[in-house]
Design brief:
Blueprint (H helix, E strand, L loop, with lengths): L2 E7 L4 H4 L13 H13 L7 E4 L3 H12 L8 E3 L16 H12 L1 H8 L4 H12 L8 H20 L5 E7 L1 H10 L14 E7 L2 E5 L10
Parallel strand pairs: 1-4, 2-3, 2-4
Antiparallel strand pairs: 1-5, 5-6
Helix pairs in contact: 2-3, 4-5, 5-6, 6-7, 7-8
């Protein structure tokens, strides 16, 4: 049976608000982040979720709980999954965006950054830029990040596809890892990746993933 996945980036966090890189570092949701999660929950409240999966970082769990609190389906089970964790930014974790960019320009050159940002798969290209410049050996490349989430999604899809009825699964994760997965389906993501508390729907049927058009939250958060 068809499995409907609702892919959501967590709500705005303190580090998002302070314009700092946030990969494996955790940071609490802001009041704005909580509000946008509840708003998205109301948007999705008629969807009966079979289950929800979040990364093992608290900002995704909190977002999922706020979304599901608005849902008509009571007590949807939530599972935490390390394979949904965001890319580690290595030495650049918690770095201020305005300080990281000049360093990238110096190390990689403006042309490399321009090509990455305007590439059809710019989330993957951005991942590879971080991998190239990293000195800690902690940053995955685009292929590694893509494989991590794709293998997880395939395992999960097969689990629920074997059920006698269709399933709706909520996935709450992070900007870069979700953007990379959407790009593997030849979907487009915003230039600065998926926005906070935005949702994309992906259907799994006959062993294939398909990106489905879905009205998204109108939040203007970054």
């Amino acid at each position: 049976m068809t499995v409907h996945f609702y892919l959501v980036r967590h709500g705005q966090t303190q580090l998002n608000r302070w314009h700092r890189l946030q990969g494996i570092t955790d940071s609490p949701l802001t009041g704005k982040g909580q509000k946008s999660a509840r708003k998205l929950g109301k948007q999705l409240q008629e969807i009966r979720f079979t289950a929800a999966y979040t990364s093992d970082l608290d900002r995704t769990l909190k977002t999922a709980k706020l979304i599901l609190k608005e849902n008509i389906q009571p007590q949807t089970p939530i599972f935490r999954e390390p394979r949904l964790r965001e890319l580690s930014f290595g030495e650049y974790e918690e770095g201020k965006n305005r300080k990281v960019l000049p360093h990238f320009l110096q190390q990689l050159g403006p042309l490399s950054i321009w090509k990455a940002m305007y590439h059809h798969h710019h989330a993957m290209e951005l991942t590879n830029l971080f991998h190239r410049i990293d000195q800690t050996s902690q940053v995955e490349n685009a292929q590694q990040l893509s494989s991590r989430i794709t293998y997880f999604m395939e395992d999960l899809a097969e689990k629920y596809a074997s059920r006698p009825t269709e399933s709706n699964i909520l996935i709450v994760a992070h900007a870069l890892i979700l953007s990379v997965f959407i790009e593997t389906l030849d979907g487009k993501v915003p230039r600065f990746l998926i926005k906070n508390a935005h949702v994309y729907r992906v259907d799994y049927d006959d062993k294939q993933f398909k990106l489905v058009a879905l009205p998204t939250s109108k939040s203007k958060e970054e």
